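Researcher: Quick test of sequence recovery. Tokens follow.
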């Protein structure tokens, strides 16, 4: 194998490892944000609406867009009763909630 090909392969392998490592760090950070926000969301729904919820999905926004994590789920035992909660992951304060009209905005 000639010298130029070796250098090219080393540079290519380094780039792949760098990008792969950054992706892993990104996913670990998002996992930690969701892990910390989940009990806050569970407690918020229990305290303010007296319902137990289960979170099934999440979305973490990058800090330059919005410092928020959104947890999506449903009321336990009522899979068709979708809920969501927006939490600021810098302060871990609830910023917004969504759910069935009768629960979130009682008539």
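Model:
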């Amino acid at each position: 194998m000639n010298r130029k090909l070796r250098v090219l392969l080393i540079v290519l392998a380094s780039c792949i490892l760098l990008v792969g490592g950054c992706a892993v760090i990104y996913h670990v950070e998002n996992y930690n944000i969701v892990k910390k926000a989940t009990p806050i969301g569970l407690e918020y729904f229990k305290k303010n609406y007296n319902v137990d919820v289960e979170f099934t999905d999440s979305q973490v926004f990058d800090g330059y867009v919005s410092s928020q994590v959104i947890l999506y789920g449903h009321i336990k035992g009522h899979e068709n009763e979708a809920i969501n909660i927006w939490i600021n992951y810098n302060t871990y304060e609830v910023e917004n909630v969504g759910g069935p009209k009768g629960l979130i905005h009682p008539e």
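Helices lie at 3-49, 101-104.
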